[in-house]
Amino acid sequence: MAKRIVILGSGESGTGAALLALQKGFEVFVSDKGSIPQKYKDELDQMGAAYEENQHTESLILNADEVIKSPGIPEKNELIQALRKKGTPIINEIEFASRYTQAKKLCITGTNGKTTTTSLTYHLLQKAGLNVAVAGNIGISMCRMVATGNYDYFVLEISSFQLDDMYDFKADIAVICNITPDHLDRYNYELQNYVRSKFRITRNQDENDLFIYCADDELTVTNIEMVEGNARKLPFSHDREMIPGAFIQNQEMKIQLTENQSNQFTMYTTDLTLRGRHNAYNSMAAAMMANSLGIRKDVIREGLMDFQNVEHRLEHVAVIRGVDFINDSKATNVNSAWYALESMDKPTIWVVGGIDKGNDYEMLKELVKSKVRIIVCLGLDNTKIHEAFSTDVDMIFNTTSAQEAVHVAAKMSKPGETVLLSPACASFDLFKNYEDRGRQFKAAVRSL
Question: CATH assignment of 95-306?
Answer without folding.
Answer: 3.40.1190.10
